[in-house]
Amino acid sequence: MEIKKLQEKLTRKKISVWEKRDRKIIDNYANGYKTFIDYAKTERKAVDYTVKELEKQGFKPLNYFLEKGSIKDGDKIYYVNNSKSLFAIKIKGSLTNGISLVGAHLDAPRLDLKPEPIIEDSGIAMAKTHYYGGVKKYQWLNIPLELHGVVIKNDGTKVDVSIGDDKNDPVFVISDLLPHLDRRKGNISEVFKGEDLNLIMGTISISYEEEIKDSIKLNILNILYEKYGIIEEDLISAELEVVPSLPTRDVGLDRSLIAAYGHDDRICSYTALTALIESEPEIRSAAILLTDKEEIGSDGNTGAKHHFWITVLKKLLKLQGNTNIELDIDDTLLNSTLLSADVSAAFDPNFKDVHDPANAPKLGFGIAIAKYTGARGKAATNDANAEVFGKLRKIFNENGVIWQSGELGKVDQGGGGTIAKFFAEKGLSVIDAGVALLGMHSPYELASKADLYETYYAYKVFLNKN
User: Fold this and answer.
1) C-alpha angle with apex 188: 184 to 190, nearest 5 degrees?
2) Of which family is this protein a member (predicted)?
3) How many CB atoms lie within 10 A of CB 156?
């Protein structure tokens, strides 16, 4: 008996969320998420959804407060950066005390149309693509695909394009080679080439007169012109994203999982958003930061390397009456803590050999906290300080958050990155924490409803108590 008590005292037992939480509460939260993930097929759409939800809860744009000339406790502020990233904050006390921040990314692996995409070959009009982020190219063959994005016309007019998400819309397909003829051998990256990921756009000619060249391509361009008023040159100044046309579905007879495109990382973006909306910060200001381009290195003026949110904080410091902004922003950043809200790889019993079972997060066991990500000896990772993990662990344990630790596969097996390091270099205390997935970066990823809910709860506790 004494040994049993000693075991209970000294060893850690992982707890299933399903054991502790009300199933109805989990399902209700999951239903809201499914509405979001079905709508937010691109980062622009995710920002659009987020702004609408924030405004419903009384958040106002930064310009409103700049015109007013001051901010106070309880003010709720948001700022949109180039339509594809966003910062939102609830004010509590002086910003120089630091803020509690949850940062996630809104982009997801996909295919982008090339600048001059439409071609015709052997009686088929196709659209050429360039894949975005880490994808297994073969997974994008022979599945239904949608097209979403914006086109900027020569006169500056912005045209929103959305084809495939309405039940009456057509979808697109990248054809695969039938098994009867497929005798290709070799490395999978050589067998499936990026240049071969061409969408089938149509097969009907606009005219069957011999002197009309590329008449099928011309028919496709004419359809686009009639629907959107755009011409071929307009496609050069466009962002058109190809995403799976796969509606969100419950998975398993127990309906415990959600299959959807874009869990990475919109699942953490949604949980961060809802946590901020429902938060009541007790100690200091609470905020979320949703960025773009994480899947390709966080570059560009909408990625995490572009610190637009720091400029926002400087303006807020001034609105609080601070005068030495350069010193005050340093204090604000150094005193702040950020949860890098990104997904991790759940233990998959079909692929046991790539995981360390003792350290791989498991579906249904709560939010996964990763001290480090990176690859090849922790390269390109934040590698959080023990003090940060210790403080977060204490907050979570005291408030009943169900959590687990995790890492992205075995040592030397692979690895990955998050936005964490780009915030750590500015002086913030940073650690990764998010939902564990099966099939990450595939067109149809799997997440546990339990982990979805627990991650939302964990973020809310962090924003309230940190």
Assistant:
1) 75
2) Belongs to the peptidase M18 family.
3) 7
- Taking the C-alpha atoms of residue 314 and residue 62, their distance in angstroms, rounded to an integer, is 12
Mean pLDDT of 211-219: 93
The dihedral built from the CA positions of residue 146, 34, 48 and 103, taken in this order, carries a sign that is: negative
Q: Are 271 and 26 in contact (CB under 8 A)?
A: no
- Show the DSSP H helices in 169-302 as ranges: 188-191, 215-228, 263-278
Q: What is the mean pLDDT of residues 427-441?
A: 96
**244 near 144, Cβ under 8 Å?**
yes
Identify the band that residue 416 occupies on the pLDDT scale cut at 50, 70 and 90: confident
Residue 285 near residue 90, CB atoms below 8 Å: yes
CB 464 within 8 A of CB 282: yes
2-108+261-465 matches 110-244 in fold: no
Burial of 434 (0-12, 13-18, 19+ CB in 10 A): buried
* Superfamily designation of domain 2-108+261-465: Zn peptidases (3.40.630.10)
Runs of H (alpha helix) within 229-370: 263-278, 308-319, 325-334
**Strand partners for 87:** 79, 289
Instruction: Return the residue matching tokens 């394009």.
Output: 161
pLDDT digits (tens, 9 = 90+) for 236-279: 999 999 999 999 999 999 999 999 999 999 999 999 999 999 99
Percent of the chain with pLDDT over 90: 89
CATH of the structural domain 110-244, one choice from 3.10.450.50, 3.40.50.300, 2.60.40.1120, 2.30.250.10: 2.30.250.10
Return the SS3 of 448: strand
Q: Which tokens go with 385?
A: 């300080």
Average pLDDT over residues 312-327: 96
